[in-house]
Amino acid sequence: GRHRIMEITGLPARDLRMLDPQLSYPSTILGRDRAVVVNLEHVKAIVTAAEVLVRDPGNPRLRPFLQELHARLALPDASTTNPATDDMELGGDQGNVPMPGSAKIQPFEFKVLEVCLEHTCKCMESEVRDDIEQLVDDDTDMSEMYLTRKLAFQRVDESSVKLDSNKHASPDHEDEKYVTYS
Questions:
Q1: What is the pLDDT of residues 9-62, one digit of tens each?
Q2: What number of other Cβ atoms are within 10 A of residue 39's Cβ?
Q3: Long-range pairs for 167-174: beta carbons < 8 A, 24 or more residues apart
Q4: Is residue 51 within 8 Å of residue 34, measured between CB atoms?
């Protein structure tokens, strides 16, 4: 349970509350000493250097995320490194600059975070696309945004007001004309 997770990860209870679906917290990624807490839209997870704990894995919205996560984690690394050392081969007198062609192994936690972020971006992109399609399909909203038409109607109304006011103008102002160039 919760106490076991706190013991394994070293996370305080307040960090675990952030993953509670009944509480409302903004999207956040918290880096702690032994774990990363991920709360992105519907992806809620605790990531350590060796494992990932996903909240509510039976949620149908998470199925694509879990499939991608399994696929990405199953991919073999280009080479193996000692996790106790740096993940890059470093040049001797090169000032610790990675050597061209050296293989960099992405740590487990970064692979998981990458999948979390990519999935969240895809979901948000899909939601935005759906919202835009709904907006474009709504004739009332589109007519409200049709500013050129509104401006044209406004100019017609203004010119008719100007013409009406010129009917009652004094003879001294008969030569005045209103012309606007844009």
A1: 999 999 999 999 889 899 999 999 999 999 998 899 999 999 999 999 999 999
A2: 20
A3: none
A4: no
CA distance 97 to 161: 74
DSSP sequence for 146-168? -HHHHHHHHHHHHHHHHHHHHHT
CA 4 to chain centre: 32
Q: Which ranges of the chain does DSSP label H, i.e. alpha helix?
A: 2-9, 13-17, 63-74, 108-137, 139-144, 147-167
Tell me if 54 sits within 8 A of 66, measured CB to CB. yes
Cβ–Cβ under 8 Å, residues 34 and 48: yes
Q: Are 68 and 119 in contact (CB under 8 A)?
A: yes
Which residue do the tokens 């999935």 mark?
119
Long-range contacts (CB closer than 8 Å, 24 or more residues apart) made by 38-45 = 38/112, 38/113, 38/116, 40/116, 40/117, 40/120, 41/120, 41/123, 41/124, 42/123, 43/116, 43/119, 43/120, 44/19, 45/19, 45/112, 45/116
The answer to pTM > 0.90 is: no
